[in-house]
Amino acid sequence: MAVKQSRSKQSNSNSKSAAKARSAASSGHQHKKEFGQNFLNNGRIIDQIVAAIRPKATDHIVEIGPGEAALTAPLLDVVHKLDIIEIDNDLIGPLTQRFSQKPAFCLHHADALRFDYASLLAPDEPYIRVVGNLPYNISSPLMFHLLHFAPRILDMHFMLQKEVVERICATPGGKTYGRLSVMLQYACQTEYLFSVGPENFTPPPKVESAIVRLIPHVQKPVVAHHEQRFAELVKQAFSQKRKTLRNTLKGWLDAEQIQACGIDPTARAETLSVSQFVTLANLYHQLQTA
Ligand code: SAM
Q1: Are 38 and 70 in contact (CB under 8 A)?
Q2: Which residue lies with its CA nearest to atom 2 of ligand 1?
Q3: What is the mean pLDDT of residues 134-138?
Q4: Which of 7, 212, 262, 275 has its CA 20 to 30 A from that of 87?
Q5: What is the pLDDT of residues 62-94, one digit of tens each?
């Protein structure tokens, strides 16, 4: 067991998980809104999430935001290495006390938004797996941060606000399709697994939640020649959702150049596939470097 202090530097079913969840819910911890602390209290849902993750004895898993260990405890029963990243000082003592005897357990008192996930890999280790019931207030920037480590991540399972999972998995033309859909689908295969109601948390959040599975592409179906410019172009295209591409991309690509990509310049960003965004970004990159 280890505790790494990197932050200082800078209801329910009768299952085993239900009993652990009940004991966590009654621990007297003051839930902190600023850290998005809505703790799972339903053992049946916890079992369902762990079943979706399918942890194996050989796995090295990283859990973001263990809270009172609703997912940590059942994962620790299985995997050979579990790194957990928690920002809340008040949770560090109880987590250490409870799990310090487990050899697989390694606690990082750190901010998941700034964490170097590649640093967790041993030299001979190809991948980590990442899981978490994420704090909803930082879920999008956190996923964008994790995308930097995508080649070293086998898969990710996250509980998020249901609306965010819908956006991640949306197809072009739908109301929820946007920048998050394009950027995550460019990097990963995305799958909406199941919904979770607010009654399964203490305290209950104001919104519905859902579990998403993200599997980084080993070989991307389409490749942007300059990923930073691709990301910037996608952001620009969605900056004014109601406007046409010829307007939002003014100064980036003109109508003729958009047309040359086989795309109607009067179309809106929300109708374009990931592949069409990549085509536009690659032309933009080519013009910038010419
Ligand atoms: N995993 C627990 C569960 O399912 O009951 C708790 C989930 S709770 C929604 C989110 C957790 O993430 C809390 O423990 C919170 O303190 C932690 N957290 C919030 N912001 C964080 C950050 N920037 N870095 C690391 N942990 C964070």
Answers
A1: no
A2: 67
A3: 93
A4: 212
A5: 999 999 999 999 999 999 999 999 999 999 999
Just give the CATH number of 227-289: 1.10.8.100
- How many separate helices (H) and strands (E) can be counted in the chain? 12, 10
Q: Which atom of ligand 1 is nearest to the CA of 201?
A: 5
Two tokens at 75? 């994962």
Going from the Cα of 275 to the center of ligand 1, the distance in angstroms, rounded, reads: 34
User: How would CATH label the architecture of 7-216?
Assistant: 3-Layer(aba) Sandwich (3.40)
Q: How is the chain split into domains, by residue range?
A: 7-216, 227-289
**Residue 115 alpha carbon to ligand 1 centre in Å:** 14
Amino acid at 204: P
CA of 71 to the centre of ligand 1 (A): 11
d(C-alpha 100, C-alpha 1), whole Å:
5
**CA angle (96 as vertex; 91, 101 as ends), nearest 5:** 155
Alpha-carbon span 276 to 274, nearest angstrom = 5
Distance 37 CA to ligand 1 centre (A): 6
Q: What is the pTM of this model?
A: 0.92
Bridge partners (DSSP) of residue 281 are: none
